[in-house]
Amino acid sequence: MARSGQVGSRWTGRLLDLYAGLVLLYLFLPIFVIVSYSFNKPAGKFNFVWKSFSLDAWRDPFLYPALVDAMKLSLKVAAVSTSVSVVFGSLIALALCRYTWKGAGPVNLLLVLPLTTPEVVLGSSLLSLFLQVNAPTGFWTVVIAHIMFSVSYVALTVKARIRGFDWTLEEAAMDLGAPPFRTVFKVTLPLIAPGIAAAGMLSFALSLDDFIITLFNAGNQVTYPLYVYGARRAAFPPQINVLATTILVGSLILLGITVLWQNRTMKEAMTK
Amino acid sequence: MAGIAAGGGRRSPVAPYLLVAPGVLWLLAFYVIPTVTLARTSFGPADAAWYDGYQRAFTDYGVHLGRSFGYALSATLVCVLLGYPLAYAIAFRAGKYKNFLLGLVILPFFTTFLVRTFAWKTILNDGGIVVQTLGMIGLLPEEGRLLNTVWAVIGGLSYNFLPFMILPIYVSLEKIDRKLTEAANDLYCNAGQAFRKVVLPLSMPGVLAGSLLTFIPATGDFINAELLGSPNQKMLGSVIQGQFLQVRDYSLAASLSFVLMVIITILVLLYARALGTEELA
């Protein structure tokens, strides 16, 4: 009986692998298109149909100043909002993991709520606030919005990484005469740094990619996703694909570095 | 050991409050208060009845509301059907390639959401390989095309939110103790029974979390409908965006937004209760 079960499960297992492989292929289909169409020489203004191979877009990635400006703006927004949300979020994660206190439940709820609200609701409610107080929308309102949705992601990511840490190390440092300030920099920060780095990358990526909330609060500012959105009407040059491919490769490299770094700090922590 | 936690608490009872203060104040100012102003805006200008926006929301845009939930539900189902087997294969069959495969699942989402959706436009294009192949095997929908149909919109929604389904299911499958399936086999369960009686129930929290993470953003999304659909597939998000930013009928736009939020909250609570799990977070 057991044997016949195994024979059956071997075949279902193969089928399952095949199915899983096809789903993975489905996930990558648009990526193949994005990368290969960066080498396209489109017939008209819109890079949606394959015509012929060309390196033109890669040779001249900065041909469209509006696209370059949009990318610069997106990077600026992502840098500012990430640096603020990483601090806010990590502090919340520390408070939730290190202390047992009454506020933990409500704070957890407040962190999850923005994640269970559709972006269109988040964007429109923020805009209704800005309209009510007559605040002009632009760079700073976008930054405010991005910090708002990033704080939750940062806090939850850092929390997941540092849960179950051995906080007695801090007390040991203090017992050995280290002042609190030194303890924070020599013990606490190195312990939680990999978690913070991961959360920072996530926050940066989310900010760079955000479209809906930004659309509501950008005023006349044009971020990279907003430029791409507008491109559906005016022109969709292959330079957009070049930038998308560059972002993909760049994040791959960053991801590789953090994984290596995390493995190293883990090993160091183990050997010590 | 209990002394550690107490020791942390004893050191300074205000410390956690100080630590969370900046982030929590930010969320209060830019998440909680805006929700209140959204509600106030929805009750509209003084010269109209307070429920005017809501009335128009249901009479004029009920169809968009229903469509948004219908599409989101379909996309969530597609995501379960595509995502569960993949998550299962990674958790139980991938061995040392587990992390590599998980990386592959996330990798496509490092390219911009909008560029990815534009790529689907190219893939589903009328003269493209996909449409031709489906036409040859007679699976093409009756419109004779894929782009600008409901199929493309649901397909796009499923694609864009699939990782949010795969990752939570993977996490819950990964946690299952292998001894349980071995025990089921020892007790003469065949592979199918062991899956139905042991693995599937234990992975339900993951399916629940994944469904919420897919369904909620899908209801509010309008990019897939705008880029891959025709005006016949217009979703509620498009209406809210247009009313807020172009028509500037703030009362109607805020009503629509508020209705969307309330319905989602109710559905989420009902769903969580039906599946009998409290760990929504």
Give the helix/strand layout.
The complex is a heterodimer of chains A (272) and B (281).
Chain A: H1 2-37, H2 56-59, H3 65-98, H4 104-112, H5 119-132, H6 139-162, H7 168-175, H8 180-209, H9 212-217, H10 224-231, H11 239-271
Helix pairs in contact in A: 3-6, 3-8, 3-10, 6-8, 7-8
Chain B: H1 2-11, H2 15-42, H3 52-93, H4 98-106, H5 113-123, H6 129-136, H7 150-175, H8 178-186, H9 191-220, H10 223-228, H11 236-247, H12 250-274
What does this structure look like?
The complex is a heterodimer of chains A (272) and B (281). Chain A has 272 residues and is mainly alpha-helical. Helix content of chain A is 76%, strand content 0%. Chain A has eleven helices and no strands. Chain A has helices spanning 2-37, 56-59, 65-98, 104-112, 119-132, 139-162, 168-175, 180-209, 212-217, 224-231, 239-271. With 281 residues, chain B is mainly alpha-helical. Chain B has twelve helices and no strands. Chain B has helices at residues 2-11, 15-42, 52-93, 98-106, 113-123, 129-136, 150-175, 178-186, 191-220, 223-228, 236-247, 250-274. Chain B starts with a helix and ends in a 7-residue tail after the last helix. The chains are: A mainly alpha (272), B mainly alpha (281). Chains A and B meet through helix 1, helix 3, helix 4, helix 5 and helix 6 of A and helix 1, helix 2, helix 3, helix 4 and helix 5 of B.
Short description:
With 272 residues, chain A is mainly α. Chain A has eleven helices and no strands.
